[in-house]
Amino acid sequence: MPPIIDKEKCNACGVCADICPTDVFRSARRKETPEIKYPEECWHCNACVLDCKQTAITLRIPLPAMMLHVEANDKMAG
Amino acid sequence: MIDIDKKPIEVEVLIAGGGISGLMAAISAADQGAGVVVAEKANTKRSGSGATGNDHFTCYIPEVHGDDVNVAIKELFNSLLGAYQDVSLARTFFLQSFDRVKDWHQWGIDMKPHGSWEFTGHAYPGRPRIFLKYAGSNQKQVLTDSARKRGVRIENHLPLTEILTKDGEVVGAVGISIKDERPVMKIFRTKCVVLTTGTTNRLYPAPSPGWMFNTAFCPSNTGGGRAMAFRAGAKLINMEIPNTHAGPKYLARCGKATWIGVYKDPSGKPVGPFVTKPTRELGDITADVWNSVFPDYHKSGKGPVYIDCTETSREDLDYMIWGLEHEGNTAMLSYMASEGIDLRKHRIEFMKYEPFLIGSRGIEIDQKAETNIKGLYSAGDEVGNFRADIAGAATFGWIAGKSASERAKRIAGFHKAEESPLVQDRAKFYSEILQRESGPSWKEANLTLQQIMNDYAGITVRSETLLKAGLKYLRDLKRKALTTLFAENSHSLMRCLETLDLMDCGETIFLTALERKETRGLHVRSDFPFTNPLLQEKFLTVQQEQGNVRLEWRDKR
User: Fold this and answer.
1) What is the pLDDT of residue A26?
2) For B59-74, what is each residue's pLDDT tens digit?
3) In chain A, what residues touch B335 (CB-CB under 8 Å)?
């Protein structure tokens, strides 16, 4: 599901939960890795990835949003 | 009962939403000496449709465009921003737009990243270009810092939910703190409210079924400003004119004009008339002005339509990637890298996205950004009679803040807004939602609303019978939602209230779409298939007065 936090790298600063425009994260307690509580409400904006000083977050684009593409030189691919 | 903070927050200028227009309103009001609070649903550093950046700022720079501002106005009306706007507001905007460009540049948003005023993208061959290319990835941090430096108080995780008026003037507002699991209701005493809550998304089904948050613009923007304004008696305008955006298929993103390529059919033939060889100056404006090209080709069986960047020069491709980064599209770029999607080799399919409300369908304002309610101002993507997206938000946000602070200076004291009957009424209503032990979730209600909007007030066909039926179904849904919605915490309460705001917006769309008995743009009436020249110079407004709805046609200004 959208953001994935590497708990080994996370220092529980809470920035991702604080800045998420869609409130995907919830911190149950301070100083704990936030929970990805509402993954289906992710906008894929990447703010959490960009603002994580520990580079502990990756974003997984869900399958329904896969980018459809074809080889440009394959005229029949369309 | 919901927890209520008994101590009202007293502030001269209260701003609903800390996006581009909200922060600009805050900065200008503070510069005029007013006390300012920005009440923001998320965090102003990363909220709203400009959260992670932008790279095009509409503006008029005399040293580039010459002395006649009409040159820029003409291009604006022929661009994707469209002609559903008052020319007087467009003029005011353009005459101040360069000042805002200079402000941003001075504060640390690079408006001249390549050394000169550079106008590339969103452009027709042989025409003047009005979209300034800039490096906006840090815009929200810079504007947040600039507001704080001026003493603006930013209240993050505190969306406003209701405006309080007395004798037709703004006296306060209600908000809900969603910082913790338990919501806390907050009351504001204020002299002015500036509504800057942005676009309205989640009203129609998004590209992927069930994925309501896969939207090009910020899905937390759900018409709060429009709905609050309407409930408080303000006029909405152009609500019946649908608007759609386009971009990569299924991964809904803004930024089509940042792509430097040519839209092509499967055989490699360009679908638009504008360019055959892409350059950074032009790109392919087809998707701006004919975004139904994607469904048109699809329905005819000639699709899909792709963007092809394989003939773009290496320098222009680097420029495009740089633009996408500054526009905030880093998630898409990382995804493409990880999936091996290579612009030098692959074509990407594009599509038209679902209808949503942006500028030119929303709150009616005057030259000072004031509504018909005294002390109530609005700016940015929720304004109904003007549109210039981020640049419009910056410029009219600034105007709104200045106007609000001028009014605040004229008014001596504060009213006891907490005594307004609406405060008790809302407290009771929010408590009911929280106290229920079961019931439909906001998601059920939101999806039901989307199917009604899509099927009865969509963009393929509208008619009196369909619209009347849809309005009836929407009102049934709203009644049901008001009495059964269930929220277990602050997050779901916020989403419930967003969904109810969306229903209010939807209702005004039905009412105005019924009244516009003609076909115009994407408002396609099967029972009135012609575009009526007598309505060419008019706009339609809708407002609520003592529970009655009033629809009015007025001349363009």
Assistant:
1) 87
2) 999 999 999 999 999 9
3) 59, 61, 67
CB contacts of A50 in chain B (<8 Å) are: 52, 330
**Is the CB of A78 less than 8 angstroms away from the CB of B214?**
no
Any idea where the domains of chain A sit in the sequence? 3-65
For residue B358, the domain's CATH number is: 3.50.50.60
Residue B321: which domain range?
A: 246-352
B393 and B522 in a single domain? The answer is yes
Task: Please give the pLDDT value at position A78.
Answer: 44
Q: Which residues, other chains included, contact B116 with Cβ-Cβ below 8 Å and sequence gap of 6+?
A: none
- Classify the complex by whether its ipTM is higher than 0.85, answering yes or no: yes
Asked, for residue B68, whether it belongs to a domain, the answer is: no
Write the CATH number of the domain with boundaries A3-65. 3.30.70.20
Q: Span B374-380, mean pLDDT?
A: 98
How many domains, chain B? 2
Element (H, E) at A36: strand A35-36
b/e per residue, B439-471, with b = 16+ CB within 10 A?
bbbbbbbbbbbbebbbebbbbeebbeebbeebb
Q: Which of A1, A4, A15, A22 to mutate to test the interface with B (most CBs of B within 10 A)?
A: A22
Q: Is residue A28 very low, low, confident or very high in pLDDT (cuts 50, 70, 90)?
A: low
**Model confidence, pTM:** 0.97
Q: What is the CATH number of the domain that holds B258?
A: 3.90.700
